[in-house]
Write a structure and sequence with these properties.
With 141 residues, this protein is mainly α. The chain starts with 24 loop residues before the first helix and ends with a helix. The longest helix has 33 residues, at 25-57. It has helices at 25-57, 64-76, 125-140. The chain contains three helices and no strands.
Length: 141
């Protein structure tokens, strides 16, 4: 048994994904590859963000809990603030008050584009800020 010869000038039918026409098959293949590369890059970037920020803020010297406490103290200009650990299940975004509810010590300028009143934190600067604060507390006792 022989198969009929295809008509001259037409290519044999291809197995294309649903919704892809033959003229756009190559473009869809390259789009799929590009999107996959971008997704992998986003996953790698996301996996490196927290460790990189922890190192920037002073991680081996300060624990993650101490980094969080110092960020609260700097951000709201209040040396009594501390992070809640572990956080309640009824914390935002699931319910309850936001983390800065009732805070009046922040020196931010509010408006359409808010401007923080605290300076940006440099490499391992939270370690120095914490040591200075602890030294002030010891001198005050």
């Amino acid at each position: 048994m022989s198969t009929p010869a295809p008509e001259s000038g037409t290519a044999p039918p291809q197995d294309l994904p649903l919704g892809t026409t033959p003229p756009f098959a190559r473009m869809h293949r390259w789009l799929k590859r590009g999107i996959l590369i971008c997704l992998v890059a986003l996953v790698v970037e996301g996996a490196m963000t927290v460790p990189a920020l922890a190192l920037w803020y002073g991680w081996p010297t300060l624990s993650l809990q101490e980094i969080c406490d110092e960020m609260f103290k700097v951000r709201y200009s209040d040396d009594t603030l501390e992070c809640e650990y572990p956080a309640d299940f009824n914390a935002p975004p699931l319910g309850g008050q936001p983390e800065a509810a009732g805070q009046t010590t922040a020196r931010d300028e509010w408006g359409v584009q808010p401007k923080p009143g605290w300076e940006s934190i440099g490499f391992r600067e939270l370690v120095r800020i914490r040591e200075d604060r602890l030294a002030r507390e010891e001198a005050g006792r």
